[in-house]
Amino acid sequence: MDTIQTLSTIFDWRSDDLQWPVTTEVGSGLSGVIATGTRVMWLDPSSGTLAYRGVPVEVFASNHGFEEVAYLLITGSHPDENVQDFESFRDRLRSSRHLPEDVVALIRDLDPDTHPTRQLRAGISALGCHELSVDEDLSGDRHWRELRIVGQVAAVAGEVASHRANRTTPSFGSSDSLSTWVLTCLNGSEPSADDTALLDLLWVLYAAHGLDAPTFTSMIVASCLADPYFNVVAGLSALRGPRQGGASEAVLDQLSAVKDPHQAGSFVRRQLETGRRIAGFGHRSYNMPDPRVVILRRELAMLARRRGRPEVFDVARAVETAASAALAPQNVHVNINFYAAPIFSLLGADPAFGPCLFAVGRMAGLVALVREAIDTIRLVRPLTRYVGSPPRSLASQQPK
């Protein structure tokens, strides 16, 4: 059978005409490798289609909250199909905001200026020490079933936000969604319905996106049958860095350097002429603009007007236009972080806290993919290809 050149030719993985097994061309960063099969989500790089359990993400973006989408991703059922089970799931997520006193104390003992992703990672690691008893098996089967970890990541993120602002942790009721509570932690006051819906939308769009670095790292840890807290800490570790979660910080740094939309063209030229990248451009999965950008571009325009900060959108749009003109011929296009970053900022998150909000949304897809694979997954153990020197002797062993 001919090799399918996945680095240069896009094809539909779902096609009935495709004959398996197939051989794929492997590039750096495992480009072209099919690491698993899944029913959780579908990402088609040729058309930009992104669907959760077969439902296009645009459907969720219009009228569904994060908790509903998390339920669909993780269980495979729509909330309307089993209302009682969804309500139980939602109650577990929301009740998970009750953190052990020792975990809260650990977070509060950290320097508030410690990067929030480090505080988030430390809090989740500490939770594992409290949630898993000494005699419980290391795989943490019960905790994968109960799914408290999804709500707990939001809980720790909220606690970190309150600590960094030197505020006490706000109280919450059972009817308060995760997004309502996290925004309250960020800003010290109850958010508007529009702001809550917008954070839900961001989490929905970030919920699942194939085997990105955090999710794939978690799948590797899951193959060792480690418990959910090891798993999530590993995923959060892979989220850190300028190529992943840290990309949103770079977007805000760059946009803040452009004081007027008319400066966008010269800014982009200077960046590219000096060999620097335009943050928020380029994506390993797309040879086109990230389809989620269309949704967030519109949302940023509306949010900026509500905040009385229309220049935030105007600058972002001007930079996107100038950068697209320069980079599209090179097949480099705008991605979700370009507009998510200023939205996170206008919702109250400083640049460093943006990756923590990213993490809350991504937990839904991460947990869904791990739960789907946990009973059948093999220990991930790829091969290497040696490209070093041929067999040789050490100098000390050469005859004199």
Task: Describe this structure as you would to a colleague.
With 400 residues, the chain is an all-alpha fold. The protein has two domains: 56-240 and 354-373, Citrate Synthase, domain 1 (Orthogonal Bundle); 247-346, Cytochrome P450-Terp, domain 2 (Cytochrome p450-Terp, domain 2). It is built from 17 helices and three strands. A three-stranded antiparallel beta sheet has the order 1-2-3. Mean pLDDT is 85; it is low at 1-9.
Rg of Cα set: 22 Å
Low-confidence spans: 1-9
Mean pLDDT: 85
What oligomeric state best describes the polypeptide chains here? Answer: single chain
Order of helices and strands: EEEHHHHHHHHHHHHHHHHH
**How many domains make up the coordinates?**
2
Which terms summarize this structure?
Citrate Synthase, domain 1; 3-stranded antiparallel β-sheet
Summarize the structure.
The protein is an all-alpha fold and 400 residues long.
Task: Give the arrangement of secondary structure elements.
Elements: E1 41-44, E2 49-52, E3 55-56, H1 57-63, H2 66-75, H3 83-95, H4 101-109, H5 116-131, H6 141-146, H7 148-164, H8 178-187, H9 193-206, H10 213-223, H11 228-239, H12 247-256, H13 264-273, H14 292-306, H15 310-327, H16 337-346, H17 354-373
Antiparallel strand pairs: 1-2, 2-3
